[in-house]
Amino acid sequence: MVVPRGSIGDHARKAEREATMRTAPQVVVIGAGTLGLCTAVNLVEQGAGVTVLETNTIASGSSGRSVGVVGTQLTDPLDLLLREHALRQFRNWESLGLEFNHIGYLRLARTEAQMELFERSAGLRAGAGFRSRLVQAESLRELVPHLNTAGLAGGIFGPDDGYIDPHALCTMLSALLRDHGGEVRQYCRLEGVIRRSGGYRLETTKGTLDCDIVVNAAGGWAPQVSAMFGQNLCVGPERHEAASILLDRALDYTMPMVMDLVNGEGSGLNFRHDRPGEMIAEIHHVAAGPPENPDTYNDRYDEASKVYLAELLLERLPGLPGARLGRGWAGLYPMTADQRPLVGPVDPDELSFVSAAGAGGYGIQLAPVIGQVAADWALHGGPVSAPGTEVLLPPPESNVGSLRPGG
Ligand SMILES: Cc1cc2nc3c(=O)[nH]c(=O)nc-3n(C[C@H](O)[C@H](O)[C@H](O)COP(=O)(O)OP(=O)(O)OC[C@H]3O[C@@H](n4cnc5c(N)ncnc54)[C@H](O)[C@@H]3O)c2cc1C
Fold first, then answer.
1. What atom of ligand 1 comes closest to residue 37's alpha carbon?
2. Which of 157, 203, 230, 267 is at a distance of 20 to 30 A from 312, taking alpha carbons?
């Protein structure tokens, strides 16, 4: 059973706030990454006036540095519930033109015990409405003809999973926001906050702005933004790297997303098709380093990492035509202590300051549900449209808690 991390016990205060809220509350969202923009769209669709402030440009933070995978290969009921909500919204946006590349997702197993886990997870996933099937070792090459299956027991394959271009997602969300009368102010950084009756006066690099409610969707910078409100949000940015793999010619099949990691066991190597003649690969490190400073971290791919990635790829995918490393980069996972996002107010006495942060390595796939839940907290004082997600409420101890240790 999932134990709620925090709770807003004072229903009277919630009711009072709802009663005093104007019909069209003015909400400012800090950060134009996937979490901020999904929240903003959910807010304007419910009639709020919304301005998104962004220090830099749309998707310039973690969102634009991600590899965009949307997968459902998980076993925890809460993880599946969150993806049910998120995928419903993705389907909706697909119908509006979002390109979702359903290349499928294959998670590899190295042991029979992992295959048994996959079998149980396939049952849970079916219950949540996600298609998947077990793949025995001898059939893996039907999905990935270049795969070296040495040491593998098989895998689980979800044909409907895939990837989206996070820039395209953020651009689409910004357009939806504008269509509903909202706006994104780029190159406009929040620098300070003054509380005023019923709301806030925000000091930005482009002047002051008054509003009723603020949503903190500042990714790796979310603790800095919280500090401006006198609050402490426990989000620690972890550095992760990715690189493109260039091929001499396009493969005659579409490489699905392939992941060699099950509950922390495996090399962490993962790769997928990106475009004809090009793939994207990563090594997912389970034990990452200490939290980074989002303003000064090294956003380039380390030479040593490139060598290690090349070694793992040559071993697992021998014979790719002319495979060589292309562009590499690094970005941040905004991590939390229990690796679940923090969505809702941190302080029960300040319901008008809502957090939408800490999505770790899942902030593209979970953004639609995080945005929905954050908007619910901002406008209704609770996650009314997504029951079961109140467990994402930041715990009171996030004001004093510690991050997951590095190493
Ligand atoms: C290499 C890599 C691969 C990844 N792959 C995947 C994947 O396959 N699938 C997946 O789901 N997730 C993936 N992720 C994780 C995902 O990218 C993040 O979880 C997600 O982008 C977080 O989004 P966000 O909106 O919280 O933060 P961000 O995208 O960082 O947005 C926060 C924004 O806030 C702005 N900001 C900060 N402070 C202020 C301020 N004071 N005033 C105004 N603006 C401010 C910043 O400029 C920034 O643009 C990956 C991440 C990395 C690094």
1. 25
2. 157
Distance 330 CA to ligand 1 centre (A): 12
Residue type, 342: L
Name the residue with the closest Cα to ligand 1, atom 41. Answer: 190
Residue whose CB lies within 8 A of the most ligand 1 atoms, among 63, 209, 214, 365, for a mutation test? 63
Instruction: Round to whole Å and give the CA distance between 198 and 196.
Output: 6
Ligand 1, atom 3, lies closest to the CA of 66
Give the pLDDT of the chain (407 residues) as one tens digit per residue. 333 455 454 444 455 455 445 579 999 999 999 999 999 999 999 999 999 999 999 999 999 999 999 999 887 889 999 999 999 999 999 999 999 999 999 999 999 999 999 999 899 889 888 999 999 999 999 999 999 999 999 999 999 999 999 999 999 999 999 999 999 999 999 999 999 998 999 999 999 999 999 999 999 999 999 999 999 999 999 999 999 999 999 999 999 999 999 988 999 999 999 999 999 999 987 776 789 999 999 999 999 999 999 999 999 999 999 999 999 999 999 999 999 999 999 999 999 999 999 999 999 999 999 999 999 999 999 999 999 999 999 987 654 433 332 22
**Domains (ranges, CATH) in the chain?**
11-63+166-234+338-399 (3.50.50.60), 102-160+237-335 (3.30.9.10)
Q: Which of 257, 342, 364 to mutate to test the pocket of ligand 1 (most atoms within 8 A of CB)?
A: 364
Q: Which residues lie with the beta carbon below 6 Å from any ligand 1 atom?
A: 30-36, 53-56, 60-63, 65-69, 189-190, 217-221, 225, 240, 242, 331-334, 357, 359-365
Rounded to two decimals, what is the model's pTM?
0.93
